[in-house]
Design goal:
With 268 residues, this protein is of the alpha/beta class. The chain has eleven helices and nine strands. The strands form two sheets. Strands 1-2-3-4-6-9 form a six-stranded mixed β-sheet, sandwiched between helices. It has a three-stranded mixed β-sheet with strand order 5-7-8.
Length: 268
């Protein structure tokens, strides 16, 4: 792993583990971070061997959010041309979280310690979020006079509802793992980091054992229906199943049921 890398990737079976690895900077998100994130998730999407992805982190924090020391140079311009460059840069940074959401492979976040600002943007683009009991979250941008601009304000209301969302976004206050579980931001809270990683591993392997094209289709239909509404979503899933059924994996599922064994899917 290069010293300049913000994250590392390992593949275990059909599960890709993406690990944030700048513990000395509390995994702060510099410009290289966003570029790497986009590139990795585009590769995950294209790799048929990858069926699920887990994002985790080293060190005391999941992430301290945007690296303000590095980002400061973007905020010093005063002219119209500087502001246009900033607009384009924000759009470019947004693409990193868009790549997570667009990745057809389900993405699980395993969060420990602090997950601040841009970390909540990242989590909001994931499919499933797990946390250790010490996790602490914040839409911190509000407290430092910035409008969160990498996806939290667009995605989080769909996950936790408008009531909780508006309180957290307008105050920027910290919220605990217990609160995150209560509002549905995370689906489970684990006692410690070891239990967190095991829970993420178990969940990722369970997803990876399913028929991969079906799982990917489910994620696509979920996102399409969220963005376009019930009736367009129904039409989309009808087209999706008409295009993919029958399949070899479906025949394997039926055969395995008849033979009273676990199916083995190959994505065909």
């Amino acid at each position: 792993m290069s010293e300049n890398q913000s994250m590392d990737v390992e593949v275990d079976g059909h599960v890709a583990w993406l690990t944030l690895c700048r513990p000395e900077r509390r995994n702060a998100m510099g410009m290289a971070f966003f570029k790497e994130l986009t590139e990795h998730f585009r590769r995950f999407d294209e790799d048929p061997a990858v069926r699920a992805v887990v994002i985790r982190a080293t060190g005391k924090s999941f992430t301290a959010g945007l690296d303000l020391m590095e980002a400061g140079a973007m905020l010093t311009g005063k002219g119209a041309d500087d502001r246009e460059r900033l607009r384009k840069k924000i759009l470019d940074l947004q693409e990193s979280n868009n790549a997570i959401e667009r990745c057809r492979k389900p993405v699980i976040a395993a969060v420990h310690g602090h997950c601040i600002g841009g970390g909540v943007d990242l989590l909001s683009a994931c499919d499933i979020r797990l946390a250790s009991a010490d996790a602490l979250f914040s839409i911190r941008e509000t407290r430092i006079a910035i409008i969160a601009d990498l996806g939290t304000l667009q995605r989080l209301p769909h996950i936790i509802g408008q009531g909780w969302f508006r309180e957290l976004a307008l105050t920027g206050r910290d919220f605990t793992a217990g609160e995150a579980l209560q509002m549905g931001f995370v689906t489970r809270v684990c006692e410690n980091r070891e239990a967190l990683i095991k829970a993420a591993d178990d969940l990722a392997k369970a997803i990876a054992a399913m028929a991969p094209l079906t799982v990917q289709g489910v994620k696509e239909v979920i996102n399409f229906s969220r963005d376009n509404g019930v009736y367009p979503g129904l039409a989309y899933v009808a087209q999706k199943n008409a295009a993919t059924l029958p399949s070899e994996d479906l025949m394997e599922a039926v055969t395995a049921f008849m033979e009273k064994r676990e199916p083995v899917f190959h994505g065909k």
